[in-house]
What we know:
By secondary structure, the protein is α/β, with parallel strands linked by helices. Helices cover 36% and strands 19% of the residues. The chain has helices at residues 27-33, 49-60, 85-94, 99-104, 114-132, 153-174, 188-200; strands spanning 41-46, 74-78, 106-110, 136-140, 177-183, 203-209, 213-220, 228-232. It has an 8-stranded mixed sheet with strand order 3-2-4-5-1-6-7-8, with helices on both faces.
Amino acid sequence: MQRLQAPTMILPQPPILALTGLSFGIERLDELFGGLRNGEFIVFHGSRMCHILSEWLCVRGQLPQVMGGLDSSVVFVDGGNIFDPYFISETARLFGLNPEEALKNIWISRAFTSYQMTALITEELPRILDREGSRLVVISDIASLYCDPDMGMLEAKKTFNYVTQSLGNLIKKRGIVLVATSLSSRAKRKRCLEEYLLGRASVAARVEDGNPHLKISLEKHSSQPLASTKVFFDELRAQALLEDFAEV
């Protein structure tokens, strides 16, 4: 697993913007999204930075509400098998959290087949929320396991549609913030399944790598204007990590 280093930016102050719910602590993104609210189904799709942003929120969600967090533990459903504890630990230090405690506050569940993923989301996730009372759920690369060639296309569509419907119902019932990511793929099936995902989303954003910036385009939102923003990073770096972000 490739290690991602923590951000080196100055610790952000409590949000100046009039935000509701979970904030990024990055001014441009908070202006774009207006905060991630309870009861929202949020989808980031595009480059691997989708995943980095989702893990960033795993730490932000643990912060007190006065700092733009949810003061909550987090449930992380790792469909892409890409959870990075190093990034979480070092990001926790940035925000003054104990790294070990921050990791303990993230309940990780992994699936390795589409059948496991379906059972985890539709059966186990509600039980975990009952037990832990978490207000933030993150699901990594949610459609990837349904692209297994051993699973027929019709079955994949039907099952994935059922999964996204179940998530939508869960969000409405529990009033949680749910963030799902879908990493870019050339596979036709992945793009097809992503349409189901985006159809269920209440907030959707495309994440694209650029040089020397990250472009985030808000494609769907009930109250925010649809727009794009660019967050710039040091182009001399080998990777576009959140530690490189600098507002310009």
